[in-house]
Amino acid sequence: MSEPGTHQDKSQFALLRERRFAPFFATQFCGALNDNIFKQALVALITFQAASLTSLDAGVLVNLANGLYILPFFLFSVTAGQLADKFEKTRIIRVVKLVEIAIMVLVAFGFASHNLEALLVSLFLMGVHSTFFGPVKYSILPQHLHRNDLVGANALVESGTFLAILIGLIGGGLLFSSKSGGAAMIGTVTILLAVLGYFACRYIPPAPTLRINWNLFTETWRNLQFTRGNRPVLLSILGISWFWFYGAMFLA
User: Fold this and answer.
1) What's the CATH class of domain 18-212?
2) pTM score, whole prediction
3) Distance CA 199, CA 152 (A)
4) I need a labelling partner for 99 at 20 to 30 A (CA). Which of 10, 107, 126, 160 fits?
C-alpha cells in the first residue's frame, strides 16, 4: 500500500496499461458484452419468432426470461460472497470463465436449432455465472490497487460495463437480424468473447480464508442483520438495488 498522495496526479486511464488492472478490465468487459449480446438476441428471437417456438405469449416469455436471469442472484449471492472470501480470487475467475465458454456452446446450439428450452437454461446459467463473478469483481480491486486508485478503477469498471451493455443491446439485435446467418454469427461471437475473456483472466495477478455457511436462508438473514447495523452500507445496497430494478423494468 502506498502512502497517501503518491498516486494523486496520475490519470485513472493509466491503469488500463497496468497488469494489476488491465486484464481484469478486459475480462469484465468481455463478460458484460457477451451477456448482453446473448440476452438481446434471445429477446429478439422470442419477440419475432415466439409463435414458431411455443404457445406462450411473447411478452410472458420475455418476462420469464428476465426472471430466470435474476433468480440466481436471489438464490446464490450469499454463497458466492463467501466463496470469494474463502478461495483465491483469480482461481474463481478462471473457473467462472471456463464455465462461460461451456454455456456459450449451449447458446450456440440453442440458436442453431431454435431450441427455446436450451436457451432459457443457458440464460439461467448465465445468471449463475454473473452471481458468482460479481463478489470477486468487487472484492479483488482493493487487493491489487492502491487506495487512491480505487475510485478511478471503479469508475472505469462501471463505465466499461455500461458501454458493454449498450454495445451488447445494439449488437445482439443486429446479429440476430443478420441476413448472412444470424444464429451462426451469434454462436460464433458469444463463444469467441467467452474465450477472449478466459484468456484475459489468465493474466490477472493472484490475489493475496472464511468458513462457508451453505444454508442460503440463515446466511442471507445474517447479512441483512449486518447491514441493518451499518447505515451507509444499507443505503448503498438499497440505492444500487433500486437502480438495477428500475433499469430492468424499463428494458422489459
Assistant:
1) mainly alpha
2) 0.78
3) 24
4) 160
Q: Are 36 and 172 in contact (CB under 8 A)?
A: yes
Q: What pLDDT, in 10s, does the model give residues 153-208?
A: 999 999 999 999 999 999 998 998 876 677 889 999 999 999 999 999 999 988 76
Question: Helix/strand/coil (H, E, C) string of the chain?
Answer: CCCCCCCCCCCHHHHHHCCCCHHHHHHHHHHHHHHHHHHHHHHHHHHHHHHHHCCCCHHHHHHHHHHHHHHHHHHHHHHHHHHHHHCCHHHHHHHHHHHHHHHHHHHHHHHHHCCHHHHHHHHHHHHHHHHHHHHHHHHHHHHHCCHHHHHHHHHHHHHHHHHHHHHHHHHHHHHHCCCCCHHHHHHHHHHHHHHHHHHHHCCCCCCCCCCCCCCHHHHHHHHHHHHHCCHHHHHHHHHHHHHHHHHHHHHC
Contact 34, 102 (CB under 8 A): no
142 grid coordinates: 482493493
